[in-house]
Amino acid sequence: MDSCDVLIVGGGPAGSTLAWELRTRGLDVVVLDKSRFPRDKVCAGWITPATTDLLHLDKDEYARGRVLQQISGFKTRMIGGSEVVTRYGRTVSYGIRRSEFDDYLLKRSGARLLLGEPLRTMEREKAAWVINNDVKTSLVIGAGGHFCPVSRSLKGNRARRETAVIAQEMEFEMDEGQQQECAVEADTPEFYFYDDLKGYAWCLRKGNFLNIGLGREDNHNVAEHVQSFFGYLKETKKIPKNTPAAFKGHAYLLYQGISKTTVDDGVMLIGDAVGLADPKSGEGIRPAVESALIAAEVIVSAAGDYQRSRLMRYPSLVAGRFGKGRVTPAIVPQAARRFISRRLMESSWFSEHILLDRWFLDTGRPALR
Ligand SMILES: Cc1cc2nc3c(=O)[nH]c(=O)nc-3n(C[C@H](O)[C@H](O)[C@H](O)COP(=O)(O)OP(=O)(O)OC[C@H]3O[C@@H](n4cnc5c(N)ncnc54)[C@H](O)[C@@H]3O)c2cc1C
Description:
With 369 residues, the protein is of the alpha/beta class. Helix content is 31%, strand content 25%. The protein is built from 13 helices and 18 strands. Strands 1, 2, 8, 9, 10, 11, 17 and 18 form an 8-stranded mixed sheet that branches. A 7-stranded mixed sheet has the order 6-5-13-14-15-12-16, sandwiched between helices. The longest helix has 18 residues, at 285-302. The structure holds flavin-adenine dinucleotide.
C-alpha cells in the first residue's frame, strides 16, 4: 500500500494551493481528483490581483499559451436600467479560463497526482486513514468543492444552515466573425444586477472566449432568469446572434461563519467545501486560496500530530480572517438592500467606490500575509 503525509481530495484552487505550500515545506502530498486535468469548472474565471499575489503567479510565464485577460474597467447596471462605465486606467482584475488555471496550479504544486479517481472509501485504521484501499495517510483534506465527499462524512457538517448561490454559466471560443459581432469589450466586463439584489448576471470576454452567466441566492426560476438574460443580450446585440446556449449549473456557499466541524481527527476542510465565498461579490477563488494557506500553517505547526485538538486553530484563524459571519447571507449586504435603489446603482460614484472598489475588488483588504 502507498502512503503519504497528507492526502488532498480535490485539485481545484484550494487543493492545489495547499499541495504547493506543503510541498515547499517538504511534505509528501498526494492529490486525488475525480476528474482528469485539464478539466472545466463552472466559473466566470474573474480573479483579483490579490489572488495572483497570493499564488506568486508569474504572469508573463502564465500568459504564454494561456488566457490572462487584463481587466481595467467594468460596466454595471440594474437589468433594464442605465449603464455606468467605470474605467480605472490600470489593471484591476484578470480573466482566466479555469481549465487552464486549475491545471497550471495543480501541475505546479509538484504533488503526486491521482487523477480520474473519485474518493470511494475513507477508513479509519488506528491513527491513520486508508483512502480507496490504496493510500495510507495521517491527514485527509477535503478540498472537493461544494459537494465535497469528505465534508459530507464529517459529523454535524450536513446540518449547517446553508444559503447557496445557484449559478449557471457557459464559455465558448468565438470564431473571427463572432469576435467582430461581440460588443462586450475584453478589458471591461459587464455586470447586470437584479432589482431584488439577490444576484447578478455577467458577460466576460477573455481573449477569444466569451463567458456568460448568472448567479442568484434563491433557486427559484434560475433557468428562466438565464434564458431571459441570454435573450436580452442577443436582442441588444451584445453577443453574437449564433452564441450557443450551452449553460451548465453549479452551486456554492457564501461565507456565513465557520463551524468547528470543519476539522476532526486527521481531517480538515478548505475552500468551497467549507463555504467561504465572499458574500458581497461571490468571489470564491481568493478565499479558497487563503483558506489553503491558513491550513498549511496549521498543518506544519502540528508537526505530524493531527488530532482534532491540534487542528482547532484552523477554524479560529479562518474566523479571524473572514469574520464571524452574518446571520442572513446575501451577495449584497442585507442592510444595504433597503437603501440601494435603481438611482443609487446609476450613480457613478457609488458604482466605483462602493460596488466595485469595496464589494467586488475588496481593495480595503490586502492579500493574506
Ligand atoms: C457559475 C459560477 C461562477 C463563479 N465565478 C467565480 C469567479 O469569477 N471568481 C471567483 O473567484 N469565484 C467564482 N466562483 C466560485 C469559485 O468557482 C469557487 O469558489 C472555487 O472554484 C472554489 O475552489 P475549490 O478548490 O474549493 O473547489 P473546486 O474548484 O470546486 O474544486 C474541487 C475539486 O474537487 C474535485 N472533486 C469533487 N468531488 C470529488 C470526489 N468525490 N472525489 C475526488 N475529487 C472530487 C473536483 O473534480 C474539483 O476538481 C464561481 C462559481 C460558480 C458556480
